[in-house]
Design goal:
The chain has 14 helices and twelve strands. It has helices at about 15-20, 55-70, 95-115, 130-140, 150-165, 170-180, 195-210, 230-235, 285-305, 320-335, 345-350, 360-370, 385-405, 420-425, and strands at about 35, 50, 120-125, 145-150, 180-185, 215-220, 240-245, 310-315, 340, 375-380, 405-410, 430-435.
Length: about 450
């Protein structure tokens, strides 16, 4: 590049009075003009043309970043960056939860460096999905890529406003969404699912699918709860990277007292496998003794690796609640965050959300229970058998059945007394194992337990 003296001001007045410094006034190359003429041969196509000085290039880049930031809709999320994301999550997280967060963080960073394909972030409320999605969008804007970050309900409101005569036509809005370099859709599934809303959302997603345009999507739904047309595209392994974040709500403390749904584990902290009695000192019939031993073996094995559903059936005082609570306490000691709740209490918690004085919404409380990493439902069947109660329990268990979430159920009912919809899921041997404890109630003060550790062998059942 030539020296700044090769650039002349276009002003006819003295330069020291009227010069508009487009670049750095102290720049030794352009003298603040912002442009230079390069020393090129006369036959070069750029001979005589001005070039932007290096001192101004950074200013232009900053201006462009500000413009992209305004267009990105990231004002409320500007502090959500990779630097502010707590990879370790909250204190007390288990090893599996920490690995889940770390893996999601690494994958999100990798995607941000080179946005290709789609990134689907799945997890419960407060698990960190939105933070990671916003961090990707913020980094994209920082490197100069056009980005739009929008929650799905806001997106549909935006489109409805345009359709009803807003400043921008619906087609212009749709074109922005279809063609932006990176589109981030937050909270897919929380929108009002009217036919019009579903159709517009599908049009946007399908366009980006057909054209393989980068996109980040967050949702707390399972794939089978999402519109089938969209779900089929989200399951394309050639385009979509799926990240499931198995972590509890960042905004809630780990302790049971911090829950909006009250787990009863704090009241049952003494119910452990070590304090459980197999009643060898009682002269029980062999069949009854074996039923208790099989249930004990199954629950200790389940506690080490919770998979599928475990149902404990038997009369009152047979030991079902003790074994179920032992599973919860064992997983809690491993740093996880199970929910243990008696079914009538659960329904009372849900009903309480309808009170004007409730600080927790029904949707949040219900979601907290149905998506818990481990849910233990004690005394199924003792609840008030109202249509509302039966429907809520079915919705809860049907979700966990479809999502294959670890669930422990205790009940004193016979199978033929249980809601047929729930019973059919319990009888699915691919997911659920049932153990019947046929022993009579424990005698008060008769226990003489031996301390035991969870077995690594699963009972034959």
């Amino acid at each position: 590049m030539s020296k700044g003296s090769s650039v002349t001001s276009s002003s006819t007045e003295p330069a020291d009075r009227t010069r508009q410094f487009l670049g750095d006034p102290n720049c030794p190359i352009c003298g603040g003009v912002g442009f230079v003429r390069r020393d090129l041969p006369v036959d070069h196509p750029d001979f005589g043309k001005s070039a932007v000085c290096t001192c101004r290039q950074s200013q232009i880049a900053q201006t462009e970043r500000q413009r992209l930031y305004r267009l990105s809709n990231l004002d409320a999320f500007q502090n959500m960056t990779f630097e502010t994301f707590k990879v370790q999550g909250r204190l007390g997280l288990g090893e599996a939860q920490l690995r889940s967060l770390q893996f999601a963080f690494n994958q999100a960073q990798q995607f941000a460096r080179s946005p290709q394909g789609w990134l689907l972030l799945m997890g419960g409320y407060g698990s960190g999905k939105t933070h990671l999605a916003a961090a990707i969008a913020n980094q994209m804007v920082e490197i100069g890529g056009s980005t739009l970050f929008v929650t799905v309900p806001d997106l549909l409101d935006w489109l409805r406003f345009s359709f009803e005569g807003g400043d921008t036509s619906l087609e212009q809005r749709l074109e922005e969404l279809r063609s932006v370099r990176l589109l981030v859709l937050d909270d897919l599934g929380t929108q009002n699912a009217t036919p019009w809303a579903e159709e517009k959302l599908y049009q946007i997603i399908n366009h980006r699918y057909v054209n393989r345009l980068p996109m980040v999507i967050t949702t707390n739904l399972s794939l089978n709860e999402i519109d089938g047309r969209i779900a089929s595209r989200l399951q394309d392994p050639d385009l979509v990277t799926l990240l499931e974040i198995h972590a509890p709500d960042y905004r809630s403390p780990v302790s049971d007292e911090g829950r909006s749904i009250i787990s009863s584990l704090a009241l049952l902290s003494d119910r452990t496998f070590g304090s459980f009695s197999l009643r060898e000192y009682e002269k029980l019939p062999q069949e009854e003794q074996q039923s208790l031993q099989k249930a004990f073996g199954a629950t200790t094995a389940y506690a080490e690796d919770p998979q599928g559903w475990l149902v404990l059936m038997g009369g009152y005082g047979a030991g079902k609640t003790h074994l179920a609570a032992s599973i919860g306490n064992y997983r809690k000691a491993m740093g996880e965050d199970p929910i243990f709740v008696v079914v009538p209490d659960l329904l009372d918690h849900l009903r309480a959300t309808f009170s004007p004085s409730s600080n927790t919404s029904y949707d949040r409380r219900f979601e907290e229970v149905r998506s818990a990493p481990l849910l233990i439902l004690d005394d199924l069947g003792t609840q008030s058998a109202t249509p509302w109660a039966r429907e809520k329990l079915y919705q809860l268990l049907n979700y966990r059945y479809n999502a294959k979430l670890p669930t422990v159920i205790t009940t004193a009912q016979r199978l033929d007394e249980i809601d047929p919809r729930v019973r059919s899921r319990m009888l699915d041997k691919r997911l659920c194992t049932i153990y019947a404890i046929t022993t009579p109630p424990y005698l008060a003060g008769a226990s003489s337990p031996a301390r035991r550790k969870p077995s690594t062998r699963r009972s034959d059942g």
